[in-house]
Amino acid sequence: MSGGHFEYREAFIEYIAEDVERDVRGFTDSATVDDGFSDESLEWYKECGLTDRQVQALQLFAEELMETNRVVRQYDLGMSGDTALEKGLQAVAEFVARRRLCPDTGTKCKEA
Q1: Is 103 among the domain residues?
Q2: CB proximity list for 22: less than 8 A, separation 6 or greater
Q3: Is the dihedral of CA 88, 94, 98, 99 positive or negative?
Q4: Which of 2, 20, 27, 63 has its CA 20 to 30 A from that of 12?
Q5: How far are the Cα atoms of 46, 74, 88, 104, 110 from residue 95, in angstroms, in the given order?
Q6: Is the residue at 87 inside a domain?
Q7: Each residue of 19-78: pLDDT tens digit?
Q8: Residue 111 — φ and ψ, nearest 5°?
Q9: DSSP-derived secondary structure for 20-38
Q10: 39-48, 86-95, 98-107: least confident range
Q11: pTM of this structure
């Protein structure tokens, strides 16, 4: 499976998600040597003083980006002929349905 419909630019979504996950480690004092933080940058993260809720939001954001990347990849494979287009479209439809909220209530909309 090669894909290529998006010229592999969908990988940038994953890179951003990984960077957000790295930020979370910086904000939560769980960074490792592999994260490549300088002492100065770790101090900056510590000084920001994020709340647990803010850190949790960042973690969920990273997860959403990873899920977005997965769906884009499935769509990409369908568009480039590596899998059935219907499979990619189904992944997109399921992704959208899981996230669709009614603007007036903020709750899940009923399916049409």
Answers
A1: no
A2: 31, 35
A3: positive
A4: 27
A5: 35, 11, 11, 21, 15
A6: yes
A7: 999 999 999 999 999 999 999 999 999 999 999 999 999 999 999 999 999 999 999 999
A8: -65, 145
A9: HHHHHHHHTT---GGG---
A10: 98-107
A11: 0.82
